[in-house]
Amino acid sequence: METSESLKQLVRDKYSEIALQSKEQNESSCCGSGCCSTVDYAVFSENYSDLEGYNANADLGLGCGLPTEFAQIKKGDVVVDLGSGAGNDCFIARAVTGETGKVIGIDMTEAMIDKARENTEKLGLNNVEFRLGDIEKIPMTSNNADVVVSNCVLNLVPDKQKAFSEVFRILKPGGHFSISDVVLEGDLPDNIKQASEMYAGCVAGALQKKDYIDIIKAAGFDNINIQKEKAVIIPDDILSEYLNSSELIEYKESRSGIFSITVYADKPDETCCGEGCCN
């Protein structure tokens, strides 16, 4: 049984390797030469290149949605990207929030932070910063962010309840998030659930969609809605690494599904209206 810390170290190790590879290598074999995982990240990723602020050097092809496209960012906003990688979503957010705003990327992998900072220097941006940190304990003060975004990262966090509680904490009252992630409907076979490669590939760590939404509700968020949803089809040649032929047939007949969703939610505007009303 993997522990919380061992899962985090697994992610650090694999994404450190990914940070040193090109987008083409990541999409073709995760992090080059099969060193990391049989999961093909191109199965999940979407095309960012038409969005203002897109930077090819920051696009490692690791996302499963376009959260910045749906995040309703405004000029002057403070935007936080959780699991910021090489900085792609941060640079797109910066194109919207402008010089009067601020964008903060959080990532627990030093190699990704280094790559993102290098990209920031090349772009000459002075209001985008990257901090090394854990999403279960975000290195920010409370009530600080107008908008939180994240792209295919929360599913990698062992304690998702703690992660969404932290998102709630750092958002200003009236702030909101737009998060793309992988969720399930129906059960995955045990061999996939227990595969560390599938965990790092965003599949084995995914929750049931209903459970994922319930965690968001329990954290205190309002106005929860799914902005986009698409089925993720894992090719047979990848599944066959974990399932024999009869298990593969059984899985396909089970109608279990893997989905990429982009979900939005508001932190309530806690405007006090009298003694005791905010307790």
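^ that was protein a. below is b, sequence first then the tokens
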Amino acid sequence: MVVEKPAGMLVIPAPGHSGGTLTDLLNKERVGPAAHPCHRIDMDTSGLILYAKGKGTQQAMMEEFKQRRVKKSYIAFVNGLIANKSAVIDRPIEGKRAVTRYNVTEQRRDFAVVDVEPLTGRTNQIRIHFKAIGHPLVGERKFAFAKDFKLRFRRAALHSQKIEFSHPGTGEAMSFTSPMPDDMRKFLEENK
């Protein structure tokens, strides 16, 4: 299953947040095999999450992620004017290689709209990489001080917009997209 997660909801429990997760919600409504997340995105991040119907399928899909055969892409709003319109950020995170490819699709006065493809899957990779190059996400509060930037947004402006993979049972190529969420679309309209 591919599910669209709203911003502000955890995929699975985390310290200090034990209930009300997307996984809890899905399994409360489901009839049949339990839904198991194959990956995670940050609580602040909206967009697509892949779930498996059963532990065996979950393990198979997690191996696909590990082997980098699942392609994910995001849309992000980042602070400032980015000199390199297309680039690869290759910087380790906690001693492990982390690689992010990006392409600026639109440059506004105080921020850029960026298509982002994480080529590795480190925790908070996109947020850490854009902070490292001096362009933290609009609304970032974990890896940057929001007060240091002119623009305000209620969360880190990051949306998981596309996921592509091979179906674990049939091998069929699968591709799913998610439109930009209302809060990010409204931000674009208000900040031309």
